[in-house]
Amino acid sequence: MVATKGSEPAHMNTTTMELKGDREIVIARTFNGPARIVFDAWTKPELVRRWWAPRSLGVTLASCDADVSVGGKYRYVLKGRKGDELGFSGQYVEVDRPNRLVYTQIFEPMSDAGEAIITITFDEHRGQTDVVSSEIYPSAEARDAAVSSGMEHGMREAMDQLDELVTSLS
Amino acid sequence: MIETFAALAEPNRYRIVELLRSGPRPVNYIGERLKLNQPQVSKHLRVLKEVGLVDVHPRAQQRVYELRAERLRQLSEWLERYREIWDARFEEMDKLIDELKAKEKSHGRNKRK
User: Fold this and answer.
1) What confidence tens digit (pLDDT) does each residue in A18-62 have?
2) Are the beta carbons of A118 and A133 closer than 8 angstroms?
3) Domain extent listing, chain A
4) Which fold has domain A19-169?
5) Which among B72, B81, B103 is the top mutation candidate for probing chain A, defined by the most A β-carbons within 10 Å of its own β-carbon?
6) Rounded to an integer, what distance in angstroms lies between the CA atom of residue B53 and that of residue B75?
7) Residue A83 CB coordination number (10 Å)
8) Do A4 and B1 touch (CB under 8 A)?
9) Could you report the per-residue pLDDT of B8-17, keeping only the tens digit for each?
10) CB-CB: which of B6, B9, B79 is closest to A147?
11) Least CA distance to B80: which residue of chain A?
């Protein structure tokens, strides 16, 4: 319904994002690797550390722990430039390596809002893997807070700098 | 933003917004095109107006509704920021996956030795 898509050249893998109804966000991306590798990169803490807090966003990963098994728990903590911390935690509901992963997620600053349910499918074809992540939030407010959370904790500043740069180049 | 998305989540309101993309339209035109009666259309338009997605202008005996581009632009920018965060993550993941693939390959070679 409301979707956004990057304007990268066609040969690159683009990230698409779509809002469905008022509680769901669907993110999709293709990776140039087999599902078993993409699944591990997505779940194993020592690998998640490498990509979940990209330096370009001005945040670091303060901690990252996960017991990737049914009923197992995880907690990722982002740290902003000013030392502020932002925790994401939850529990694995379904772990079907390398095809499917379902887990709950609490955005700790808004824990009163309840849990989101995140379902990720990994679909391999000819050495590439299509990943589709569906995030269903407990309410429209919780979803919109999650989308807006990227603006907090130093990311906003980094993004503004990036925008300025892009504007000055174009 | 919450109210704006809630307003758009209703299928008939979304259809009205789609229809108004072709230009300003009077209430009765919208009703005819979308097969909705006038009270329904008026109710939806009132909600869309409250969240700033449409504006209304009187023209002769009619009320003409038009989309507010500014509000739509804000919505798309807000979503685009979230997409950029994931895009930045996935670019890092691309590098990691290349590395893991290379590692797997060299392990495979070692095994065969």
Assistant:
1) 888 888 889 999 999 999 999 999 999 999 999 998 877 778 899
2) yes
3) 19-169
4) Alpha-D-Glucose-1,6-Bisphosphate; Chain A, domain 4 (3.30.530)
5) B81
6) 10
7) 8
8) no
9) 777 788 889 8
10) B79
11) A4
